[in-house]
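note to self — DONT lose this again. spent like an hour looking for the file last time. sequence + predicted structure for the chain T wanted, 546 res
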Amino acid sequence: MRQHHSVFKRGKQTRLPKTEDEKASPLHVDNVRPMNVGLLRGRMNETTRARFDETWRRTFDVAKLRPSSSRRVSRLQAKHAEELELNGIAQRASGPGRSVNVPFTVVEEKEGALRQRFILWTHEANDAIEADGYEAQVPLKHVSTYLDAVHAECGSTRDLRCGFYGVEVPRGARDAFRFQDDAGDWWELTRLPMGHTCAPELMHTLTSTIAGHPDFVKTVHAVPAAVTVHTWVDNVRYAGSRKDVLEASRKVDELAARSKVTWKDADTRTASTRYEFIGVDWDHQSGKVGISARLSKKLARDLVEVRKGAMSASGLETLGGRLLHASAIVGVFVGEFYFALKFLRRLTNALNRGEKAVDQTVRLSGSVQRLLDGWVRAVLEKRRMPVAARVPSLTVFVDASLEGWGGVLVDVATNAIEVLGSRWSRKEKGLHINELEALAFELCVSAVPDKYAGGTVTVVVDNTTVQGVARKGACLRSQTLNDAVVNGLTRLRHMNISLSVRWVKSAGNPADLPSRVPLSAISDKNVADMALAVRQFLTGDMGLVV
């Protein structure tokens, strides 16, 4: 089985069920209607539809699949297969199909209770699709990019009920989704399973289309520009004025009814100023965000386990993901817990290399225990954070050379320019160029005047390493680089400044010159050239990557 472990946010921790779990916890199934995919496809814009058709073909064009001779032991109980049949998710089959699939369940916690989720691992189909060059396109962004929406008047959420089961498998492809239960009977799925490599992309595209996301649908079907819409696989959130949010919600519910989409009953049906979405507690009245109640409870339980001095490898991996997600929400810089993050990184590498099993107990050293304890407490104690209104106030261009560092500060309102720069010391000249770029970042950010406190700063760099570290908040490769960027981020945090980081080609970076020559050697013509480069960047007349 191909596995890849990483420190990332998980909505819930899952594990294979123990015998007592199989008896006590129910299977998570629901008899939802199959959605009208054809109707939704007709609302997609040309680019989305072309990609959707290609992904649909990869998923269900199974004529070339040939089963291997190997048969894997099934973990699915016959009673669970019968439950799937009762809810219209599976039907009985005559025997093996086009590929070997592995059915199993995982145990997850939902609102304090355990339940089992059915997975059909279509490993042979997945391998063939990935060998053909498929890479999923599910544009889920870093949680920090969603937080601006808290400044809207209100929000409204939707969540598909058993979303994957709302997509019907074409009849001609069902024999590629066959499996065997522990009684030896054969079954085939009639609905899209979790466990297929294309399933998340199909689900996210359909959800975004239902929501009227302007990146996915024709202009005539998109929500009004005044409404912010976010989709997360099978979840939707609208934010804007009460009037606009209610109108967008009314239209999406009308479309859901026509396309036979089933929402969960517990969704926020009316415009609300307080709700939870993607692990975030949104408070539109105060303009603050915090970690959701469920995430907070999970971290509190994790803290108890950390203090015992030992956790399973999978538990630590999940804890790392929760901490990264929660830190981004409440503004805790993960670089401050550099060695804890490095420990988690080494653990996930060991999992990937097969050196540790996911259920293996990992003893925590005293130092790691203290660091993880401090990180969890820092997140839980902060609780809520005001989100600075995203009104651009200052753009800072940063660059470094082997000779020195340079910066160009541009007041967005007045276009006034201030040029910064200096030469490196002999000790600093011995550092790697990426570390010099990070020091330039720290020096330029430290020069941001106090009058921009509470505003927004856009830092523009031509070094992708510094760009990535500034966005993530930590670097595991170099402590010098990590400390420089974290110092800069800490300065901005103390000023309650909201940061965005962008990249520009080196040839178009106006900070290049002051990084190479003394400020005294920069002429008025040089400053005019810098101003031109700034205008080109701000108006989009030069190549840049966001």
